[in-house]
Design a protein that fits this description.
This protein is an alpha/beta fold. It is built from ten helices and ten strands. Strands 6-7-8-4-9-10 form a six-stranded mixed β-sheet, sandwiched between helices. Strands 1-5-2-3 form a four-stranded mixed β-sheet, with helices on one face.
């Protein structure tokens, strides 16, 4: 209050208060008041702008929480990583299918399989979005969510090549994994999301590289991992590791028509639907007519 009174007692403010408000500002008055306010009130003006910015952000967050039916998460004070969510969904989907997900020290790695378009990437992004929203003080897209405070979130999604630098897609995949390992090997709690690991190389190389990376990552107990892949063949070799849980999205095929339930189920999918999609979209028939 004292600070407000000091501001009101400034000569330029007094001159504004005592001025006839019915008279339009002259050019000289505009310049005088504009320069005076700019020089004398720069700091409090910037402070007010910051306050209004925060209020606007909080108001937007409150509206989003109400309209999207978000719920406040429960943070658990623990030295071990933890993430449990019930009825988790992706906020951008108009009619989302909810998931239940649980990751903790004893089961800190989800090996995720499923056909193209089955829902793997959407699930990974839904988890990442929810954890990020929780850490910025927002509600989360779930009926209930309990988690530890993470030190960071890393994603290996939408990796691209770099023509200018002469870097291939696979090379950038390797670099992204390398940087991830360097970051998370520090004893802190991380959430690591990897979508379609090593799809930039041939199948045999991809399987060997994926197994090597996964067997290395599961040694890191202070972080949580979700990794999606089409390489379901490597799942059998990974079943000997108790901290890996296997989840998949199923696809039903009836008369060459695909049906996706988007339900997260326990197990490994061996669906191979690439050729079927190619045929369904008339690409095969177009090629046959050439």
């Amino acid at each position: 209050m004292a600070r407000v009174k000091d501001l009101l007692n400034k000569p330029v403010i007094q001159k504004l208060i005592n001025r006839d408000s019915k008279q339009p500002f002259t050019w000289s008055e505009t310049i005088y008041f504009g320069n005076s306010i700019k020089e004398q009130f720069r700091s409090p003006t910037n402070e007010l702008v910051g306050i209004f910015g925060r209020l606007d952000a909080w108001h937007s967050m409150a509206i989003a929480q109400k309209e999207l039916k978000l719920t406040l998460p429960e943070f658990i004070e623990t030295d071990q990583p933890l993430l449990e969510a019930k009825d988790l969904f992706h906020v951008l989907l108009p009619t989302p299918v909810p998931y239940d997900v649980a990751l903790h020290k004893e089961s800190n790695f989800i090996f995720l399989t499923g056909a193209n378009m089955a829902g793997k990437s959407t699930f990974i992004k839904a988890v990442g979005d929810a954890v990020f929203l929780a850490h910025v003080g927002m509600g989360v897209p779930a009926s209930h969510m309990k988690l530890s405070l993470f030190d960071g979130l890393l994603s290996n999604i939408n990796v691209v090549d770099n023509i200018i630098k002469g870097e291939s897609y696979f090379f950038n995949e390797v670099q992204r994994i390398k940087n991830t390992i360097l970051k998370i090997n520090d004893g802190r709690k991380w959430l690591v999301l990897i979508d379609e690991l090593f799809k930039g190389t041939n199948v045999q190389d991809a399987m060997k590289c994926s197994l090597t990376v996964i067997k290395g990552l599961i040694k890191i107990k202070n972080s949580l991992f979700i990794l999606s892949t089409h390489l379901y063949e490597i799942g059998e070799e990974l079943k000997q590791h108790p901290n890996i849980s296997f989840r998949y999205f199923e696809t039903a095929v009836e008369e060459e028509q695909l049906s996706f339930s988007y339900q997260l189920k326990e197990g490994i999918s061996n669906d191979r639907l690439g050729y079927l999609i190619l045929k369904r979209e008339k690409v095969v028939s177009l090629l046959e007519q050439l």
